[in-house]
Amino acid sequence: MVEPQTRLDEMITSLKEQGHRLTPQRMAVLKILAADEGHPSVEQIYERVKVDFPMTSLATIYKTVTLLKEIGEVLELGFSDDSNRYDGNKPYPHPHLICIKCKNIVDPQVAALSELHQEVAQSTNYRILSHRLDFFGICPQCQEEE
Ligand SMILES: [Zn+2]
Ligand SMILES: [Zn+2]
To answer: If you average pLDDT over residues 7-36, what whole number do you get?
Structure first.
């Protein structure tokens, strides 16, 4: 995991460079995404921002997240059966591990990732631009509750 303060600074710089305003609500969204505890959904971010900014609307949060996605400062994880989740700590493609019970998402360490890229490229002759690698399982906490 990248130091949340480092990521926050990077996001702020990126937004400013592109001429976007930094409202207090927007800052709150950035802070949550920079720390990325469990890859929140827009709804989860909204619930947390609302604590300090009760007047915030879900649309405002959605707009901020979409803007961050557009400038490459947040990675969107789309799910067909669930709401999308976001990683602002590591805004580039990386493997994820998803608990099918509580829907918690963590970033597992996958040492052989670059070899995997090479293998896929070599066996298909594709030029690999990106990847999406999801593991599904049951987290230790949910295992205890079984
Ligand atoms: Zn779980
Ligand atoms: Zn992640």
So the answer is: 95
